[in-house]
Amino acid sequence: MKKYLAYALLLTLLLVAPLLFYPVLLMKVLCFALFASAFNLILGYGGLLSFGHAAFFGGAAYVTGHAIKVWGLPTELGILTGTAAAMVLGLLVGVLAIRRQGIYFAMITLALAQMVYFVFIRSGFTGGENGLQGIPRGTFLGLVDLSNDRAMYYFVLGVCLLGFGVIARAVHSPFGQVLRAIRDNEPRATSLGYNIDRYKLLAFVISATIAGLAGATKSVVFQLASLTDAHWHMSGEVVLMTLLGGLGTIFGPAVGASLIVTLQNTLSSGPLGAWVTVIMGLIFIICVLAFRKGIVGELQAALRKSFN
Amino acid sequence: MNASGDFILQTQKLTKGFLGFIAVDSVDLNVERHTIHALIGPNGAGKTTVFNLLTKFLTPSSGTILLDGEDITAARPTQIARRGVIRSFQISAVFPHLTVRENVRVALQRQLGTSFHFWRAESSLNVLNERAEELLDLVGLLRFANDEVADMSYGRKRALEIATTLAMEPKLMLLDEPTQGMGREDVDRITELIRRVAKGRTILMVEHNLGVVSTLCDRVTVLQRGAILTEGAYAEVSSDPRVKEAYMGKSAA
Ligand SMILES: Nc1ncnc2c1ncn2[C@@H]1O[C@H](COP(=O)(O)OP(=O)(O)OP(=O)(O)O)[C@@H](O)[C@H]1O
Ligand SMILES: [Mg+2]
């Protein structure tokens, strides 16, 4: 019961937020929260450290931008196209990487993502260093004009809640149950008759798809798809967000993403602008040394302790 | 020739080499149906490697594995599991971050055919709870059903492992040192449990505790440096001077 109350409160907050804060920043937070949640599905619940998720985030952003700007697709279809592209890319990368374990998996995903990155630098449709600019926001179902920031915010909120819902359901589904078992003990899962590679691959594809949904949406918000979104820095940032918020917790990654995005935003406009990377690094170190389970993970552990 | 229905599992000249070193050397193992068969031998004799070969966690260098007279040498680990050969591991094989009930349920879950359904609610698995709890009751863990496994004692983890294995309805259970590292009381409890669950099944177990072997096992195969040293009933085997020698200073350790 308390849980539903908390959810209702959270939803209300999300609904009134654009009246209190700058909607574009909120939208950025939402997109990264979704991105980190998608990443958490594969790292936190699948136990696989992907270091190439920027390829799906950035790739979907480019495809969406191109579909809307050049092909003239309506906004929703453009986002769907970008998301589908991320799914296909996720399947390709997944098939090649999924048999590797631990650091080898991280390395091969990084290598493949770098290849994708170089394709983006080279090919004309991405606009190279300038990025793909001036993507029109369009309308929602031809009814609501999305160039209005508040309208856009509610659209983004809807998309992100949908994506988040898919992840939360996947985690708490028969599939999620097997996935967590595999994360805990691969050989045992095999000895119980589970073909573990297939489960990991499905988790990877879902994760890549939702990461793509986040990137696609972000490109519409900022009307821009650029190399930054596909750069390996982005892959690293999403690891940081997830760890900071709490690996393998449902809400942790979203909390981590909100903090990081807000912090970056505050710092970059202030006198500490040049130090952003250093400060991020410090946060990472503190996080790894002092609170391993991340903010939400530590809170949960503390709560559990006080109940026992 | 070997199609005798009495043997559930047979190996013929089963061999495994690691970089020029022969860990399992031309082993002919014959496990009779509905018996408890022990595989013993000093550390490094190749017992776990035999298990890894039987379940195809490792690929044999040569030799044949027959299950119910059928050649399964080329089968994959999951196929072998689905044919009812379920193994445990030398170090405990539980899912530490799942609850006790979930551990057993994961083994039952495959039969529902929904294990890839990522859109279905987890509560759809609740139909399995009754069976899971029956199994937990059998191994005396029912009252821990909601606990996270990571916090449990070692003995209970091993008992849970057996419940999970049973959930697979195994024809043949391969247990790798089920009493290793346990206190006296836990050893007795697990021994009793194995005796109970052996009814109507076949068990092949690696065991260092010769007391357990003598009370539990119908037949004993002794492995030394990868090869079979001798085989027979416990009384026979244990009086064999070669076995005594192989175990010298070992069983005391
Ligand atoms: N994957 C591997 N690669 C190389 N050598 C291995 C491998 N697995 C096992 N060995 C070697 O094969 C030999 C047999 O090991 P195995 O684990 O089967 O022994 P064991 O009889 O189970 O011993 P213990 O009683 O200590 O469990 C050992 O010398 C071991 O070092
Ligand atoms: Mg061993």
| Count of all domains of chain B | 2
Care to count the β-strands of chain B?
A: 11
What is the strand tally of chain A? 4
Output the radius of gyration of chain B.
19 Å
Order of helices and strands of chain B: EEEEHEEHEHHHEHEHEEHH
Bound molecules: adenosine-5'-triphosphate, magnesium ion
CATH architecture of the largest domain in chain B: 3-Layer(aba) Sandwich
Pfam families (chain B): ABC_tran (PF00005), BCA_ABC_TP_C (PF12399)
Protein name (chain B): Leucine/isoleucine/valine ABC transporter ATP-binding protein
GO molecular function (chain B): ATP binding; ATP hydrolysis activity
Keywords (chain B): ATP-binding, Nucleotide-binding, Transport
Describe the structure.
The complex is a heterodimer of chains A (308) and B (253). Chain A has 308 residues and is an all-alpha fold. Chain A has a domain of 211 residues. Chain A has 14 helices and four strands. Chain A is globular, with a radius of gyration of 19 Å. The mean pLDDT of chain A is 90. Helix content of chain B is 32%, strand content 24%. The N and C termini of chain B lie far apart (42 Å). Chain B has a six-stranded mixed β-sheet with strand order 7-8-9-4-10-11, sandwiched between helices. Chain B is α/β, with parallel strands linked by helices. The radius of gyration of chain B is 19 Å and the shape is globular. At the A-B interface, α7, α8 and α9 of A face α2 and α3 of B. The structure holds adenosine-5'-triphosphate (ATP) and magnesium ion (MG). Adenosine-5'-triphosphate binds next to α1 of chain B.
